[in-house]
UniProtKB/TrEMBL annotation:
<dbReference type="InterPro" id="IPR036881">
    <property type="entry name" value="Glyco_hydro_3_C_sf"/>
</dbReference>
<protein>
    <recommendedName>
        <fullName>Glycoside hydrolase family 3 protein</fullName>
    </recommendedName>
</protein>
<dbReference type="InterPro" id="IPR001764">
    <property type="entry name" value="Glyco_hydro_3_N"/>
</dbReference>
<dbReference type="GO" id="GO:0016747">
    <property type="term" value="F:acyltransferase activity, transferring groups other than amino-acyl groups"/>
</dbReference>
<feature type="domain" description="Glycoside hydrolase family 3 N-terminal">
    <location>
        <begin position="15"/>
        <end position="341"/>
    </location>
</feature>
<keyword id="KW-0378">Hydrolase</keyword>
<comment type="similarity">
    <text>Belongs to the glycosyl hydrolase 3 family.</text>
</comment>
<dbReference type="Pfam" id="PF00583">
    <property type="entry name" value="Acetyltransf_1"/>
</dbReference>
<keyword id="KW-0326">Glycosidase</keyword>
<dbReference type="InterPro" id="IPR016181">
    <property type="entry name" value="Acyl_CoA_acyltransferase"/>
</dbReference>
<dbReference type="InterPro" id="IPR036962">
    <property type="entry name" value="Glyco_hydro_3_N_sf"/>
</dbReference>
<dbReference type="Pfam" id="PF00933">
    <property type="entry name" value="Glyco_hydro_3"/>
</dbReference>
<dbReference type="GO" id="GO:0005975">
    <property type="term" value="P:carbohydrate metabolic process"/>
</dbReference>
<dbReference type="GO" id="GO:0009254">
    <property type="term" value="P:peptidoglycan turnover"/>
</dbReference>
<dbReference type="InterPro" id="IPR050226">
    <property type="entry name" value="NagZ_Beta-hexosaminidase"/>
</dbReference>
<feature type="domain" description="N-acetyltransferase">
    <location>
        <begin position="643"/>
        <end position="708"/>
    </location>
</feature>
<dbReference type="InterPro" id="IPR000182">
    <property type="entry name" value="GNAT_dom"/>
</dbReference>
């Protein structure tokens, strides 16, 4: 509640009421306790953290949250409670309900799908479910980059070790949460991805990287999430130790919170501290003193998870800090304004006291179940299958036995197994006592029993299932291995549970030394499946068949079984840089890069293009199909072009080519193509060409930005994305060269075939007649003024040059215009061209179709037009009619926003031809990547 002028409402003059808003507190148990009731009613605590131990089901959670909000309302709180929860999916879900709450892959599992759109949908669905129960703050996204990946407990809770990829998926998660109405909280600033664990239990984990190192890597996702509108940030309780930086707890440090987060990264949202009840902090500083330090460091909300004694100590410490002038009232009011602003976006009393609960969750369940299945099916990853043992139906006869070996692990919190165990503890079953005595392990048969059953249900032959422990390979294991026709070993964080690594390597050796009854050596099929961290055997080539699921919830294991038996092909790919193991041993070479000389190099470039086309992935159409050296040479006075080659000076053979264009009108420097002879890839030729291109573009007078992908020539509209795992490889490659691939824009070229039998979709012609515009087709430079003025409403690179080419070639090009009848103002245009036009030379797909083809290019719709899609479809529909009238049987759309089906064009007969990610960045902030 703030006055219209930004001042606080007089209700906040009450000091206790104000201080309460600066705390987030938790409690133990599944019902409202006297302690939490008192904290809300008497101390006016403004935020509550709910943990897995508080929540039994969706229905109980809804009831509990309603009761908490009702207590606050009845106590006169001016605004509702902020109710926060960890719901990261994978193995970290505070709220589990096998009926109403769906299970989705972990953060790294979603990164393995390669789809930010899928990550967004999963985040939105997750947020919709918890919001239905009354949650209004989600403790996510996790923005940590695993720079010290193999030793991190965070594991699959992060999106991986590539800062650009973590950034892209983190922002997708954040936007999904926001779409469902939740406030978002990034964690764990300034990154838990590079922690070193040193000293005793009272020593906190330490970040040893310098601020400069963090800025280049770990801070990238935080910086981008802030730019995109992150609501809150959790600052961790870790230590920081490097040259010029010695911080005991980050969340208590003004250097971290105020200087780094506020001033350098320009974060204006709510800062939440790590829990001040951590043993190291309470032992070394004390909770009361820690509270004062956190507030003065810049934290807006101080978190205390469970201990009522510590919570009281924190409140008293805060009040004492005010009384002693250690904390100023202005400092408190600044935090209060931030908190109230965030609450205004995610809650109200109307919303807080009327949670939709089970009624809404029942409606969401069918679509969310389908989404869960899709996400898990898309995440399962086959890293290697050297001996082609997958699917199992290829190698197992019905009489063969399949052996499943699983480790002893505790079930994930977000699983039916964990809930079953919890229920048994409540009912006095003796078995959980064993689990509690050894919290890292429990019955492996319990956790993976359903996996064994699922494997058995899918085949006629027997499935043998037993567990393994730190005792290694026992005689029982050896006997079962000798009997089995194939062996599956499951590992879960083998890098931190080294007995799993040793056991797996021992079994692998046994399988490699099998012999037939005739004495011939016969390697027994072995499949190793990492069900948590993919790092277990990612780099170990001795494990010939290696798969990853990224978590071992029931839904993940169902998807795994389907892949093992070939019901669908695994589409996941290892996230980040770990999929590129060849980089570990590869040394970079520095090639001589020369200017392209048309007279000397044209023939060699044509030969190089043919090599690239012939070396394309089987079943995929190369973007260069139909191209020649002329396709890359614009010879346009408005565009400065300079191209580069790596060549063999003795044979004149070209090994690599890079095209650059500088569009003077927009100050845009473009890499329009970069390709290397397939037989000479991974030798740093592309890297050498790229560096030379960037250095040249940086020297252009008036350079404002760089762009990867060019509308003119329309060959590579960006980094190609239609090649499965190739997409991930290219994104990573360009990211390492300095491109912020997280801020890409999807574009595509499309094609409509069989125009001779094509008819417009039913009803489309009628809808166009009702549109308040007139269409016409014009040719020639006489119409240039109006058309070129119109396209200035869109400042995209290459747009003006495309239209000028069309206007100067009236025999082969035309412009379809859409005009307002009342004043004749142009509100939409599109370029029409045929195969004889100069424009067609720069669209190789025109020739590659192999039949008479027409082209439609560069639609521009005025920003003032409300019916964008209707007008776009109208322009394209009229273009198709004209192209069909000219006797063409195919139509190319050479540049469209979106991926696969922009604006419903599939209904008009178009299918995607090539998909790209167009990437732009500020030239003023470009950092050259040094050779290594």
């Amino acid at each position: 509640m703030a006055a219209g002028n930004g001042e606080l409402d007089p209700v906040w003059d009450d000091v206790d009421r104000t201080l309460g808003q600066l705390f987030m507190m938790g409690f133990e148990g599944t019902v409202v306790t006297p302690q939490i009731r008192k904290l809300i009613s008497e101390h006016h605590i403004g935020s509550i953290l709910l943990k897995a131990s508080n929540l039994k089901s969706a229905e109980q959670t809804t009831s509990l949250i309603y009761e908490l909000q009702k207590i606050a309302h009845d106590a006169g709180h001016p605004v509702p409670l902020l109710i926060g929860i960890d719901q990261e999916n994978g193995g970290v879900n505070s709220l589990f309900d096998d009926i109403y709450i769906r299970q989705y892959p972990s953060a790294m599992g979603l990164a393995a799908t390669g789809s930010r759109d899928l990550a967004y949908e999963v985040a939105k669905a997750t947020a919709e479910e918890v919001a239905a129960c009354g949650i209004n703050l989600i403790l996510g996204p996790c923005l940590d980059v695993l720079t010290n990946a193999r030793n991190q407990p965070l594991g699959v809770r992060t999106h991986g070790d590539d800062p650009q990829e973590v950034s892209a998926f983190g922002v997708a998660f954040m936007n999904g949460y926001k779409k469902a109405g939740l406030a978002t909280m990034g964690k764990h600033f300034p990154s838990y991805g590079s922690l070193e664990f040193l000293g005793s239990a009272l020593d906190v984990p330490t970040i040893t990287e310098s601020l400069e190192q963090l800025s280049l890597n770990a801070l990238v996702p935080f910086r981008n999430a802030i730019r995109e509108g992150l609501d809150a940030m959790m600052v961790g309780g870790c230590a920081m130790s490097s040259a010029g930086l010695n911080v005991m707890h980050a969340c208590l440090s003004e250097q971290v919170v105020n200087d780094l987060l506020r001033n350098e990264l320009h974060f204006e949202g709510v800062v939440i501290s790590d829990c001040l009840e951590m043993e190291a902090l309470s032992h070394n500083i004390g909770v009361g003193g820690g509270t004062v330090m956190a507030v003065n460091a810049g934290c807006d909300i101080v978190l205390l998870c469970r201990s009522y004694i510590h919570q009281q100590e924190a409140i008293e410490g805060f009040k004492l800090g005010l009384d002693n002038f250690n904390i100023t009232k202005e400092r408190v009011r600044t935090s209060l304004k931030r908190i109230l602003a965030m609450k205004a976006k995610c809650t109200s009393w109307e919303k807080a006291l009327n949670p939709p609960g089970i009624e809404l969750l029942s409606k969401l369940q069918p679509s969310h179940t389908m989404l869960s299945t899709k996400a898990y099916n898309s995440s399962v990853t086959i890293v290697r299958d050297k001996n082609r043992v997958l699917p199992l139906t290829n190698i197992l006869e019905p009489e063969d036995e399949l052996l499943l070996l699983t480790p002893l692990v505790k079930p994930l919190a977000a699983s039916a197994a964990a809930r079953q165990l919890s229920d048994q503890a409540t009912n006095g079953s003796p078995e959980p006592a064993v689990w509690e005595r050894s919290s890292s392990v429990m019955s492996g048969e319990r956790v993976f029993r359903e996996l064994g059953r699922s494997l058995a249900r899918q085949r006629n032959g027997r499935v043998l299932h037993t567990s393994y422990t730190a005792n290694g390979v026992r005689p029982q294991h050896e006997n079962l291995i000798n009997r089995a026709g194939a062996v599956i070993i499951v590992t879960a964080d083998a890098n931190r549970n080294l007995y799993q690594n040793g056991f797996t390597k021992h079994v692998s050796m046994i399988c490699n030394m099998q012999y037939t009854s005739g004495g011939e050596k016969r390697e027994k099929p072995l499949i190793v499946i990492a069900v948590s961290s993919p790092y277990d055997f990612a780099m170990d080539q001795s494990i010939g068949t290696y798969m990853c699921t990224y978590d071992f919830t029931e839904t993940a294991l169902v998807a795994l079984v389907k892949v093992l038996y070939g019901e669908f092909t695994a589409a996941g790919a290892l996230p980040g840089t770990i999929s590129q193991s060849q980089k570990l041993s590869q040394s970079r070479q520095h090639w001589l890069v020369e200017n392209f000389n048309e007279e000397r190099d044209s023939t060699g470039l044509d030969a190089l293009i043919r090599s690239v086309v012939e070396g394309a992935t089987p079943g995929m159409h190369s973007e260069l199909s139909g191209a020649s050296s002329n396709s890359l040479l614009l010879r346009n006075q408005d565009v400065l072009e300079q191209h580069f080659v790596v060549r063999n000076s003795s044979t004149q053979t070209l090994y690599g080519f890079c095209a650059t264009y500088f569009f003077q009108a927009t100050g845009t420097g473009v890499i329009g193509a970069i390709f290397v002879d397939p037989a000479r890839r991974k030798l740093s030729i592309g890297h050498s060409l790229h560096n030379r291109a960037i250095r040249t573009l940086l020297q252009r007078e008036g350079i404002k930005r760089f762009q990867l992908g060019s509308r003119l020539p329309s060959i590579y509209l960006g980094s190609p994305t239609g090649h499965g795992g190739e997409r991930k490889r290219l994104r990573s490659w360009f990211a390492k060269l300095g491109w912020n691939t997280a801020l890409s824009r999807t574009v595509c070229s499309m094609i409509a075939r069989n125009l001779s039998t094509w008819t417009p979709p039913e009803g489309m012609a009628r809808s166009l007649q009702s549109a308040a515009v007139d269409f016409d087709l014009v040719y020639g430079w006489d119409y240039a003024v109006g058309v070129l003025d119109h396209i200035k409403t869109n400042n995209r690179q290459g747009l003006a040059e495309v239209y000028k080419l069309a206007l100067m070639d009236p025999s082969a090009c035309g412009i379809i215009r859409a005009k307002r009848p009342e004043d004749g103002a142009i509100v939409g245009t599109v370029v029409l061209y045929n195969m004889q036009s100069q424009l067609a030379e720069f669209v190789p797909a025109m020739k590659a179709v192999g039949e008479l083809t027409g082209g439609i290019s560069s639609p521009v719709i005025s920003p003032s037009v409300g019916e964008y899609s209707t007008l776009l479809q109208g322009l394209i529909l009229l273009g198709m009619r004209q192209i069909k009238k000219q006797g063409c049987n195919a139509c190319i759309l050479d540049y469209m926003d979106g991926d696969g089906n922009p604006d419903g064009l599939s209904a008009m007969g178009f299918t995607s031809l090539h998909n790209f990610e167009e990437v732009s960045c500020d030239a003023a902030t470009w950092t050259m990547v040094p050779p290594s």
